[in-house]
Amino acid sequence: MALDFLSSLFKKKPKEEPTPTTPEPMEVEELEEEVESRQENEQITQILERINEIENDIPRIKISIDTLKKQIQELRDDIDRLDKTIKDVMMLYEVISQEINPFKEQMGQENPLTSEIQELRKELEDLKLEIAQIKNDIKVLAGYGVDLDSIIYEVLAEV
């Protein structure tokens, strides 16, 4: 045992092989990684700041949108009221223009429908007068004792 101990002391120590040390490339890689890490951290920080700004702006934007919606609805209501008012005014204009329009006769001559309506009105008035005359004639005939039933049957048979 002692011999082994002494031989181990006097034995030549094998030279340790130099380990290939490339401290510079390791440091460059570490520096590159550190630079990339810092850049990523800066980007994350910027993104977080922007997110905070957006989160702060959201309530103001929501209030603005609600205000705009309310204004748009008010404008719609105003437009509806104006539309109704314009329709009422147009109806009033039509009524007044039919009664007071000095150019009514000229317009009637220019529009064929108006002239047809005027002709139909005249024919209707003529028919009303004729019916009134027939009623009067029937009353007179009934007063003289004429048999109206037989006359009516004869007229209906001819038709």
UniProtKB/TrEMBL annotation:
Its main location: other. The lineage of its organism: Archaea, Methanobacteriati, Methanobacteriota, Thermococci, Thermococcales. GO terms for cellular component: archaeal-type flagellum. Keywords: Archaeal flagellum, Cell projection, Cilium, Flagellum. This is Putative archaeal flagellar protein C. InterPro entries: FlaC_arc, Flagella_assembly_related. It comes from Thermococcus nautili. It is found in: Archaeal flagellum. Residues 26-35 have a biased composition (Acidic residues). Gene3D superfamilies: 1.20.5.170. It holds the Pfam family FlaC_arch. Residues 1-41 are annotated as: Disordered.
